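Hi,

I'm pasting everything inline rather than attaching a file, because the server keeps stripping attachments. The sequence lines come first, and each chain or strand is labelled.
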Amino acid sequence: MSSQKNGWTGKVLYIDLSASMIKVVHPEDEVYRKFIGGKGLAGYFLRPHVTLPWDHTEMPLLIFTGPLVGTAAPTSGRSTVMSRSPLTGTIADTSVGGRLGFELKRAGWDGIIITGKSEFPCGIEINDDKVKIGDASKQWGRDTSSFFEEFYDGKCSVSVIGPAAENGVAFSSLIVDRHHAAGRMGIGLCFAAKHLKYLIVNGSGKVAVHDTEKLKAAREEIVRLTNASPILMGQHGFSCFGTGSIYDLMDSRRMMPTDNFTKTHFERAAELNANAYKEKYSPGKHGCMGCHIRCKKIARSKMAGVSMPEFETMSHFTALVGNTDMDLVMQANKLCNRYGMDTISAAATLACYREVSGRRDIAGDVLDLLEQIATASSELGRELGRGSVSYCKLKKNKSASMSVKGLELPAYDPRGAYGMSLAYALSTRGGCHLRAYPVSHEILRKPVATDRFSFSGKARIIKIAEDQNAVIDSLTACKFIFFAAGLEEYAKAYTAATGVASSAQDLLKVGERIYYNERIMNALNGFSAKDDDLPRRFFEESGSSGNSIEIRPIDRHAFLEARARYYRIRGLDKNGLPDPQKVEELGLT
Amino acid sequence: MKQLVDKYTDKMIKGGLAEAPLVCGLDDEMTWNRQAPEVPILEAVMQGMNINSLICAEPAEPYQSILVYLTERYPEVITPGDCETRTFLHDLPVGHEFSAKVIGSHLLYRKSVVIKADGKVKIVTFGTVSPEQAFVTFSSVCFAGFVLFFADFLADFKNGTVSETQRRAFDRAVSHLDEPRTDCPELLCGPFHREAEAYEAIIEAGRHTVEYGLVDSYFGNISYRLGETIYISQTGSSLDELAGCIDPCPLDGSSCAGVTASSELVAHNEIFLRTDNRAILHGHPKFAVILSMDCDRKECPNKKRCHIKCSEERTIGDIPIVPGEVGTGTTGLCHTLPPAVKGRRGAIVWGHGLFTVGREDFNLAFQHLLDIENMCREEYFKRVK
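And the predicted assembly:
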């Protein structure tokens, strides 16, 4: 693809920080069609290097947009940041909103491959086709808030790591455009490993589209479906309350992880729900570029200008750690963003510490502990900063780390949704709810409701959903809109934007390739069936039954049978490893 | 999976959608409700797709006659104008050979395909999560085809362009229509004072609404106001299976537990706040939907945007017809429906369905739903005489 194409720019920026060298890469047409963009393309460029240690100078750090970014397709302003995870050792991709993808695309780039390591702290500044590696020595050590104060004017995109990454926190994040985070997997530490403090992108071009009218028609269909979605646009939905709107629901369904997943119901939940935050902080709407849902919320009264916590943060910094102070949740969220730390792993690691240490009440120390972790200012802070698995190993209490493949679990207890148990176990990046997102049908009834206490049919459902979400993260769109629209509508948008004739089923096949590529990469690093598993607690202990809902331990035999079915459906062997025939079939040799 | 396959086989038959459906669920192995000569072809279709369920059936009458005619009139693609098609299905592609190649080529792009071969029609639909998706789509195709067929006939009749074939198809379809029911069920009497009573009344009214054919199983919604809480059916719930699918939503918004409530919660809220009613029932009775789309204006600046832009004050008898799309967007029915219902027994949303109200319980709301549909049906046949 040597010249600019519709949808894509046809250009990828390659930066070697060791040599201060910059060049332009033009991927072949076939590469675009086989991997689309976003995490698909990032995975394609990661694979040749994936067995290197995460902090090896040749380990690439990849930032990719998709073909819908910068077009009229709804919710398509996102991008993927990818490398190998310092926290888990698996592949590490994280989808992020804000303006990053939009500006990058308008600057004329489908993505950036960053390799090498700068001798000094540096930053990358992109103004269309002008690329500069700047000296960030004076910025190293600054927190993200002060950096945004100085460099973010809302018209460009600014991504920056905070002191947590610089101090080696394994779950450090990248903060984008003040309110958005590439949160999970320790991607911030991947930046720090390259001495890369920030990325500023300013694009002034336009994205060429194959058929504007057809794209407009696809957009209309998608927006109509969004408007018909109570979860997205209803009076209790994400647009009004943010993702926190499901806080009540998770507790009423008896699947709110409480006291480090020893319970699934939090007595004080009703006082700490999204409506309570709304009354106290009067949040306003904020959204990623190109999104009409605008689920991000920013406080307007008390703590004005501060990001409101997302659902997982609300849940984990209350129920999971035993805190009932809403202000403390706001402060913890603010602190994590300021220092650049993933709120899910941070809270889950604190919950793990609470269990291991036997301290009943740590609420009063939460902020201090977060400070100690981010600044690595104490032995305890440094121990916790390596994540819950490392901490539990040190304390010889492995069962207290509620994680999969080393990634701490988010705020959906799998005993209340069996598809979620499979999704967690099988996720290529560890304990993640977003790979297959079965909450969609097991709880939110979309596209239709499924029996959340049954494994029947779930193996294939999870496989299809993983493929679909791989496509979404490659286009790069927002997963939330798929509570309403589907690939049927997005395939039309993709074809209209790029001119590549494609159906929903064609896209799912591409998604299958992208996901299988991730299984291959993890297998190369030694991951197998032994890692596709859940913490023992879920198979041995009940949750908190009530509301006529019984939360039993998951039947391990049924779980393993469903996992075996998944392996067959996915085309893996009995140990969860890639099958050479399937590898060839998918064009991944 | 077998349980789900059997459940939707039963619902297809009992709902009058098909007499002998083929239903398949797929996890790591395929589970069919029965064996049939079509199965190898359908298995080939499924192997080429990333799906987990499929339904194939000759639709029962009158849908068979209707779709045979529509596939002749629209041999490539059928494009009904009702709300369900516009929002969820977009259009209904037509194929002319019962082969894996033809079926698969259409299902790549759409949730259903209508196959016309050897003078008969089969509908094939699929799901990626559950056979329920395939069932819902099948049901929607039948509904959309029905509405288009009778709406087309009315328009052509007025224009004097009804063809012989069309007339024969019309007569055949009409001969298969059930007699209109006029008897109302005796539903629980309100006002209700306890939550359990409200739940029971909602479940009962929902079940009867489906049994009387006033809504497809999957669509519609129903609510009851008890004090300062609205109890409403959940999004995508089957009105004949509402147990466990009702959300309590405080009117003051103090809880978001209703995030899974019907997409029309805002409209229901507004109706409760503007009127003294305690019960709201929303169905998709076919003739109310068909007549809502009947308009004599030849020139209109809002043509083809009637569902969101119609500015005429239109009624059928005492029942107003208002534009509005599903949900809460700027053109959502939550803006148009509540004022229209005030002081009336109900209102029709253009191409979508009928909302009715009751002051104490669902008896009146149900009676209004049935009476208005019967009135619309009578009016329809008057207009084509």
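The CA atoms of residues 218 and 493 of chain A lie 5 Å apart.

If the labels don't parse on your end, tell me and I'll reformat.
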